[in-house]
Design a protein that fits this description.
This protein is of the alpha+beta class. The protein contains 3 helices and 6 strands.
């Protein structure tokens, strides 16, 4: 009986501890206005660690990197998987509490922001990056 009770308790509590990285798409306010963005929720981390990773990732995009007022930008960047055209990229940490950090990434492809409905191939490449 004790074994069965323990097994049921463990099975019911597993979903509470099984957090994973999630990606959503929505409009997010940036310093220069609202943009369609990919919002990534990362469990079991700190904002300092994530901020360092954002900087490293965005510097890999090439172009001119800048950080100001809690936002990170790259102008005239390029990611091979998104194609040959240059883009502007934006990122910011939206929230950080209880070991969960939420980050927004927006990509201006030159007239339109990257979205799953308008840029299916580039969307897949960006999300899977």
């Amino acid at each position: 009986m004790k074994f069965l009770f323990t097994l049921v308790t463990v099975c019911l509590s597993l979903p509470l501890f099984s957090q994973e990285v999630k990606v959503d798409e929505r409009s997010v306010p940036f310093n220069a206005g609202s943009k369609n963005a990919y919002v990534v929720t990362i469990p079991y981390t700190t904002s300092d660690f994530v901020e360092k990773k954002i900087k490293d990732e965005m510097k890999d995009w090439g172009g001119k990197y800048n950080s100001s007022k809690g936002e990170f930008t790259v102008t005239q960047g390029k990611i091979k998987e998104l194609g040959e055209k240059l883009f502007d990229g934006y990122a910011k940490i939206i929230d950080s509490k209880n070991g969960v950090v939420t980050v927004a990434f927006a990509v201006d492809l030159g007239g339109a922001y990257l979205s799953s409905s308008q840029h299916k191939e580039q969307h897949s490449a960006f999300v899977n990056r």
